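User: Need the bound-state model for flavin-adenine dinucleotide:
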Amino acid sequence: MNGLLAVDPVSRTATLQAGLRAPHAEELLAAHGFTLGHFPQSYEWATIGGFAATRSSGQASAGHGRFDDMVLGLTLATPEGTVETGRAPRSAAGPDLRQLLLGSEGAFGVITSVTVRVRPVPRARLYDGWRFPDFRRGTDALRRLAQDGPRPTVLRLSDETETLVGLAQPDAIGSGAPDENAGCLAVVGFEGTDEDTARGRAAAAAVLREAGGEPLGEEPGRRWAHGRYSAPYLRDALLDAGAFAETLETAAFWSRLPELYAGVRDALTAALTGAGTPPLVMCHVSHVYENGASLYFTVVSAQGDDPLAHWTRAKHAANDAILAAGGTITHHHGVGTDHRDWYVREAGDLAVDALRAVKRRLDPAGVLNPGVLLPAD
Ligand SMILES: Cc1cc2nc3c(=O)[nH]c(=O)nc-3n(C[C@H](O)[C@H](O)[C@H](O)COP(=O)(O)OP(=O)(O)OC[C@H]3O[C@@H](n4cnc5c(N)ncnc54)[C@H](O)[C@@H]3O)c2cc1C
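Assistant: Bound-state model below.
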């Protein structure tokens, strides 16, 4: 299931089989002059079906939207038959069944193909670095762009700790410690025609300057674009070296974001410090919307005697802090089994029972990913 089934250049849609890995899908679309514009950090390995099954969100989500925004229709194979959705781009014919199947994580059926909206391959890509004196002012600047425009294609902001660690590049090691007053680094990217990107960049620059930003030119943006898929490869090497590294993410409305940021950081710091392994907690604003944003945390610490139990305690503390601060248990990593109990708390028993009824109808024998997303019956 790794083919491009159809391209409709007039409607700008494409139907892709679910087993296509993202780079291959981009290659096939590029032959028709199109791109999906979906570049999550898992881009090199993840599949089209996986993107739909987990409601994935890519690094260019500010401009291209989340994967679930891109999906116009999909086909789901279930033990009870096939479900087809997506007769038209939008419809008022009852609830949107696409939304019931997107994010179903294999618990309702196997997504076999997905029809997505596609866009012309951009002629220009520009990623600029901006410095903000602190995370609060940087976050306010991102909110202004997300709410009042111009809306960049890529928009992310590292907190002070993540900025400092990012500045400690291998080629900088030995040439002195990074400046502790480095502030917070934002990457602001525009993709499109030469004229659109130039216009967007100039208009965004005016907003960012007024919000307290200082332009750093293209070098930090180029560095981000170059290394954007490489960080996860570090994890196993860190584990082998006795360090522990993990990530988690959430999202909330803008008004709750400062509380969410502080709550998750405090919970992780307290849990890991209490266990005798004080952590380094880094964070960035990874995805923005008109009404809120996603926060992505990276945690590094020593491993402790039992690394799994050690992380489980810290992760549970972070999950509780996320729900207490009004965040969602996952913005894009999905539920799986790790987040399932918190997903049940977030959604509520009645909603979860309704989803279980759907599962029972589509998968009466309970053979599809039992225990994933929903508690096993
Ligand atoms: C290093 C790393 C970085 C990541 N970065 C991001 C990121 O930036 N943004 C983001 O959104 N996510 C990210 N993720 C999470 C994940 O890769 C994505 O959510 C992706 O969509 C998963 O696709 P996959 O093909 O790898 O699915 P898998 O991981 O193989 O599967 C995920 C779940 O979906 C189910 N599933 C897979 N395919 C289908 C199908 N065809 N039909 C029904 N169910 C199916 C599986 O059974 C499983 O429950 C990251 C993960 C890793 C490991």
